[in-house]
Inverse folding.
């Protein structure tokens, strides 16, 4: 199976407001396979959002390559196809709303690529059903909650035909209910529709739901692995400004005190079972 996203030797350099050259990403090698749910975490300034923007060619490599289903982002002729295949959902849903009616907003992408009217209707209907927003199709987006707006943004990527969705801190501006809505929606799309999900977050509880967690620090991938492996490394996470889940921290401290607890405890339920 070939990767959806294949990053080799990626380096990204930009010029700041003082005209200084700043290296935001360096030596990034990464493959994301079809149907994976990958979470990317890191402290502010670690490069995770910059990396996300390379996945649908919003940014281009200074060195190295990023390929989406074999298409190099540096080849201009590939850009439009890449952006159809990899949808982006950003932190502030208001920045992605372009129409006054929900169904018109979801239809915006396919209309722009010349999809027929009948096919657009089918795609919009399917996308709204998948994200549980059918009853809001004729509503004004600005009257919806933050979580509902994000689900409309996700529906827009589905209507465009995206097989991979990259979400850049999609719940940062939402309340707990909204965060839960978005995470459950993406988990369902991943499991039921085999949508590849790249989920950038600073909420460790959300990252724990992924198949694989990638930890970034100072523009590099510091570690990656299953959530149990990553969140058990309490000391290493804290050194780069990340909080391990409370259960993982508690188990870590108990082990240091001599308690014989198994490795890989990251949830309250696992901790409670181990302490019985």
């Amino acid at each position: 199976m070939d990767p959806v996203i294949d990053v080799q030797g990626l380096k990204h350099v930009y010029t700041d407001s003082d005209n200084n050259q700043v290296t935001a990403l360096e030596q990034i090698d990464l493959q994301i396979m079809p149907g994976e749910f990958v979470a990317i975490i890191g402290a502010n300034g670690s490069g995770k959002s910059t990396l996300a923007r390379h996945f649908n060619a919003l940014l281009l490599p200074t060195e190295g390559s990023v390929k989406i289903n074999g298409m190099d982002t540096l080849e201009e002729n590939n850009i439009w196809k890449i952006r159809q295949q990899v949808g982006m959902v950003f932190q502030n849903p208001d920045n992605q709303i372009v129409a006054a009616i929900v169904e018109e907003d979801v239809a915006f992408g396919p209309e722009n690529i010349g999809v027929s009217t009948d096919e657009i209707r089918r795609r919009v209907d399917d996308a709204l059903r998948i994200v549980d927003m059918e009853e809001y199709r004729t509503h004004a987006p600005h009257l919806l909650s933050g979580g509902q707006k994000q689900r409309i943004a996700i529906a827009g990527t589905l209507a465009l035909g995206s097989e991979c969705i990259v979400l850049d801190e999609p719940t940062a501006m939402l309340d707990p209910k909204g965060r839960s809505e978005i995470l459950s929606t993406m988990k369902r799309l991943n499991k039921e529709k085999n949508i590849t999900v790249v989920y950038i977050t600073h909420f460790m509880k959300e990252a724990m739901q992924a198949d694989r967690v990638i930890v970034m620090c100072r523009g590099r991938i510091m570690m990656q692995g299953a959530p149990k492996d990553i969140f058990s490394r309490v000391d290493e996470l804290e050194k780069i400004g990340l909080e391990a889940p409370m259960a993982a921290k508690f188990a870590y401290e108990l082990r240091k005190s001599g308690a014989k607890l198994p490795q890989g405890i990251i949830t309250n339920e696992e901790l409670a079972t181990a302490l019985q």
The chain has one domain: 5-230. The chain has a mean pLDDT of 94. The domain at 5-230 is CATH 3.40.50.300 (Rossmann fold). The first helix runs from residue 48 to 54.
